[in-house]
């Protein structure tokens, strides 16, 4: 016979459920406008605010249709789903948290997104981008919006460049809680110093061109392009 659950166990169970509960975020444009996607309560997982997302997709207005997109630290997936909503051809979602990956799959099903137009991979972007064949071409648009404290955008950018997954036509969206310009310069210097002879022939000198930038509260966001000379 099963023992009845004590009051203490009930409270503990309630806390567990509450800790795993997250929220919903609304898609603000395109064919899925006003539809929501869900996310769990996990450390560092915070969807890009509506105001900032609206600015980003205004920047991408002329480039989003037919684009191959990477949402490298997907979280709620709202950036990738927003891109698909606005006409992107394909989006690859990479998410480290298993439970949130399952949530992304549920969101894709609820939105009735065609299986051929998206891929959801569980793992860290730096490893996934090296180990797996993602798309048969370079990405047109890349979203790098990791938990701010981890500064993952630097290793992710490094892998994207060294694995030839982006080129000088790729639009790169970065979001952080600190100045990006000086860190991008340091990253460019490091990459240039570490390029192999073959990579130097292809890329010559790595640099990052800032196309757009904005600040919302403490959040710094920018749209960049890889340039070489």
End-to-end C-alpha gap? 75 Å
Rg result: 19 Å
- DSSP E strands, number: 9
User: What structural class do you assign from the helix and strand content?
Assistant: alpha/beta
What kind of assembly state do the chains in view correspond to? single chain
The helix/strand series, from N terminus to C terminus, equals: HEEHEHEHEHEHEHHEE
What can be said about the biggest beta sheet?
Answer: 7 strands, mixed
Overview of the molecule:
The protein is built from 8 helices and 9 strands. The chain has a 7-stranded mixed sheet, sandwiched between helices. The radius of gyration is 19 Å and the shape is globular. Helix 5 packs parallel to helix 6. It is of the alpha/beta class and 229 residues long. The N terminus is likely disordered.
Defining key terms:
single chain, seven-stranded mixed sheet, two-stranded antiparallel sheet, 8 helices, 36% helix, globular
Q: Topology, please?
A:
Elements lengths: L6 H14 L2 E4 L9 E4 L10 H10 L8 E4 L6 H8 L4 E6 L2 H13 L7 E5 L2 H7 L9 E4 L8 H10 L8 E6 L4 H14 L2 H7 L2 E11 L2 E10 L1
Parallel strand pairs: 3-4, 3-6, 4-5, 6-7
Antiparallel strand pairs: 1-2, 7-9, 8-9
Helix pairs in contact: 5-6
What does this entry show, briefly?
With 229 residues, this protein is of the alpha/beta class. It contains 8 helices and 9 strands.
């Amino acid at each position: 016979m099963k023992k009845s659950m004590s009051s203490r166990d009930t409270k503990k169970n309630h806390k567990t459920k509450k800790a795993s509960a997250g929220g919903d975020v609304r898609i603000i444009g395109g064919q899925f406008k006003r539809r929501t996607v869900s996310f769990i309560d996990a450390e560092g997982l915070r969807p890009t605010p509506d105001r900032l997302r609206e600015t980003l997709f205004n920047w991408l207005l002329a480039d989003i249709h037919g684009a191959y997109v990477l949402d490298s630290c997907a979280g709620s997936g709202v950036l990738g789903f927003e891109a698909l909503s606005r006409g992107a051809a394909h989006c690859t979602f990479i998410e480290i948290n298993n439970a949130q990956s399952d949530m992304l799959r549920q969101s894709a099903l609820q939105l009735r997104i065609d299986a051929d137009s998206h891929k959801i991979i569980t793992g860290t972007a730096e490893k996934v981008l090296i180990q797996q064949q993602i798309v048969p071409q370079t990405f047109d648009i890349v979203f790098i919006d990791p938990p701010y404290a981890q500064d993952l955008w630097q290793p992710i950018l490094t892998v994207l460049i060294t694995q030839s997954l982006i080129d000088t036509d790729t639009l790169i969206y970065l979001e952080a809680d600190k100045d990006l310009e000086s860190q991008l310069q340091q990253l460019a210097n490091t990459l240039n110093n570490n390029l192999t002879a073959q990579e130097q022939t292809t890329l010559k000198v790595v640099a990052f061109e800032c196309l757009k930038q904005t600040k919302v509260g403490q959040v710094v966001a920018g749209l960049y392009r890889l340039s070489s000379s």
